[in-house]
Write a sequence for this structure.
């Protein structure tokens, strides 16, 4: 069953994307199988999360560098604290099925990283 990402989490991601000078766009979450238990690498998580934010916010070439910085900042703060399932979802650019506890961790990291940009 497909669920949408909760509004507060999406708002935090969009807010971060807006700091990049991005414009709003529609998000289409991909469905991903999380049956395997191996954790994706941090670089896979950063790449997938960057693609998800780019889809959420729309991007120009100049904002991609800032989005990569943001997702790297968030990954550095959260990688060891997130479940394998969430890391797999992020690596697959899927924000819609992340558990509530992991959304809280991610939202707090997004806020902290936004403060570094300000």
């Amino acid at each position: 069953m497909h669920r949408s990402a909760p509004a507060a989490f999406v708002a935090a991601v969009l807010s971060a994307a807006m700091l990049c000078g991005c414009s709003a766009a529609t998000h289409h979450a991909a469905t991903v199988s999380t049956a395997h238990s191996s954790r994706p690498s941090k670089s896979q998580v950063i790449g997938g999360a960057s693609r998800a934010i780019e889809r959420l916010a729309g991007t120009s070439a100049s904002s991609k560098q800032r989005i990569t910085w943001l997702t790297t900042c968030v990954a550095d703060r959260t990688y060891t604290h997130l479940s394998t399932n969430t890391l797999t979802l992020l690596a697959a650019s899927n924000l819609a099925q992340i558990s509530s506890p992991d959304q809280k961790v991610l939202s707090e990291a997004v806020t902290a990283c936004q403060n570094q940009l300000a």
Summary: The two ends are 38 Å apart (CA to CA). Confidence is low (pLDDT under 50) at residues 20-36. The helical segments are 7-19, 42-57, 61-78, 84-91, 100-117. DSSP finds five helices and no strands in the chain.
